[in-house]
Amino acid sequence: MSQIARGERVTSRLVFHFKDGSQYEDTAVFSQRRSIRLLSDHVIQKGPVFPHPMDVSLNGSTGQVNIRHTDDDGKEKSINDQLKLPPDIVNGLTLVLLKNLPPDAQKTTWSMLAATPKPRMVKLVVTPNGDDPFTVGGTTYKATHYVVKIDIGGVAGLVAPIVGKQPPDINVWILHNEAPVFVKMDGPLYAGGPVWRIELASPAWPSH
User: Which element (helix H / strand E) includes 111?
Assistant: First the structure.
């Protein structure tokens, strides 16, 4: 994960490389003047890990959404839509915003565009769930545990738990310090995906 700031504009890039050659890449550009505001987001997921490879881009200013995906028959299809995006849309910014939440923040709600592959707006409801201890180099710290619930909304949201379509909760742990640090996440990376655990890795040095 990398973040490059140029003035009030920040480019945040998160990339996962899988051993089978699959790749997940999310590049979000946002402004940080007074408040964090999404300018654009581009997600690429490809390879055997993903049943339906997808390329999703959205423009936070114009509402233009472009989706290229592969269906069940292996055929590539595209969706181009113009949506009215809310100002609190957080695609590609969830971890950034969680690190910027005040430690005493209570329930927080954000908007997110989900590609299923058809684009639809959902709500992310973030609730703190206490502090959990962890150890690094013999020193114990406490990370704030956040539970992120995906609220589908509407009639679909009412029937989703009944038909087994309700997305699982996402659990994220953040160490709030002078410079807040992401520690761990349990949750899916894409709609309908499995729950994966993402943790920080320690560098491995060659032995001499």
Answer: strand 108-115
CB-based contacts of 206: which residues, under 8 Å, 6+ apart? none
User: Consecutive 10-residue runs of the chain (208 residues): their mean pLDDT?
Assistant: 92 95 96 90 95 94 94 90 93 93 88 89 94 90 94 61 70 92 92 89 81
For the chain, what percentages of helix, strand and coil (3-state, to nearest 5) are there? 10, 55, 40
Task: Compute φ and ψ for 142, nearest 5 degrees.
Answer: -125, 125
H/E element holding 160? Answer: helix 154-163
**Which amino acid would we find at residue 190?**
Y
- Look up residue 180 and give its two tokens: 């807040």
Strand partners, 56: 43, 67
Report the DSSP beta bridge partners of residue 25. 15, 44
The span from the CA of 167 to the CA of 147, in Å, is 13
- CB contact set of 23 (below 8 Å; sequence gap of 6+): 15, 16, 17, 44, 45, 46, 47
pLDDT value at residue 157: 53
Strand partners, 146: 128, 172
DSSP letter for 101, please.
S
The residue behind tokens 């655990």 is: 197
Which pLDDT belongs to residue 154? 60
Task: Give which of 159, 133, 157 is closest to 145, Cα–Cα.
Answer: 133
Q: What is the pLDDT of residue 54?
A: 94
